[in-house]
Amino acid sequence: MEGLGLGYLGAGIGAGLAVIGAGLGIGNVAASAAEGVARQPEATADIRTTMIIAAALIEGVALFGEVICVLLALK
Amino acid sequence: MEGLGLGYLGAGIGAGLAVIGAGLGIGNVAASAAEGVARQPEATADIRTTMIIAAALIEGVALFGEVICVLLALK
Amino acid sequence: MEGLGLGYLGAGIGAGLAVIGAGLGIGNVAASAAEGVARQPEATADIRTTMIIAAALIEGVALFGEVICVLLALK
Amino acid sequence: MEGLGLGYLGAGIGAGLAVIGAGLGIGNVAASAAEGVARQPEATADIRTTMIIAAALIEGVALFGEVICVLLALK
Amino acid sequence: MEGLGLGYLGAGIGAGLAVIGAGLGIGNVAASAAEGVARQPEATADIRTTMIIAAALIEGVALFGEVICVLLALK
For site (Reversibly protonated during proton transport), what residue positions does UniProt give (chains A, B, C, D, E) (predicted)? Predict the structure, then answer.
């Protein structure tokens, strides 16, 4: 990589920011899911399915972002 | 890429910021959806459909943003 | 692109910031919509239409911003 | 690594940001899980399973991000 | 280490950020666990196990991040 190696800086910061987004997002969903299971244990399956659909969507964007950072890191 | 390689920096930071937006947004929707399912288990299908419509809209913008970052990263 | 390549930096960061705005905005709307559906399941169609109108407006601005970032990235 | 060693800076900051995301996310889930267990002790297994699924998803993204930072640090 | 020694900067900032994440996360879990034990003393064992699982997951990511910072500091 020519230049000052700014891509390496971007890879590191971007990887960290992506984990912040995914962590807070999935954490938020799952916190409500845990509270919901505690309030309505008989709806556990529905709540868990809802949580996993959302978590998978977040996970997809996050992994895409991480792959971009890998591309930058390995350049 | 000519210059100092600032585009690589932008690709990394942008990818991370996009994941923050998508993660917090989808996380917020899904948290309310999980709470709603716990409160009204018989409305699970309606709530989940509402959640998926919104998550798909967020996902669309996020993936568009990630593709821009890929363009910058592979330049 | 002449200069230091600052446009590439702006493209990446701008794309990420646009997703933060769209994600948090649509997420906030849809979270309230999911709660509303849970509280009044018979108003699902009205709530969902309201949500989609708002989400489409947010989506429009976000995609416009992303296109500007694409223009910068492809320069 | 050529340049000013900006990748090392990115590795350190990125590793730290990733821990912030994972820590707050898993912490948020587990806090709600602990409250849920206190409120409905008989749903402990369901709540704990929900928590572990979400924590594993967060952990996966976080470790991926940390590995990117290791790549940068060892370059 | 060639360059300006930015890796040392990254090691220090990263180690600090990692402690922020782990501290707030584990603190959040343990606060809820303490409240839960106070509300339901007979569920102490379940609550404590839930807390320890989550704290161990956070601890794992945090220690990984700290090791990266050690690598940078000893370079």
Answer: 59
* pLDDT tens for each residue of C19-51: 999 999 999 999 999 999 999 999 999 999 999
| Residues within 8 A of B (CB atoms), A 15-44 only | 15-18, 20-29, 31-33, 35-37, 39-40, 42-43
**What ipTM is given for this predicted complex?**
0.91
Alpha carbon distance A33, A45 (integer Å): 11
User: Domain of D56?
Assistant: 1-74
> What are the pLDDT digits (tens) for B54-70?
999 999 999 999 999 99
CATH number of the CATH domain containing A23: 1.20.20.10
Q: By CA distance, what is B33's nearest residue in A?
A: A50
Helix, strand, coil tally for chain D in percent (to 5): 90, 0, 10
Number of structural domains chain C divides into: 1
What pTM, to 2 d.p., does this model score?
0.91
Taking the C-alpha atoms of residue C20 and residue D10, their distance in angstroms, rounded to an integer, is 22
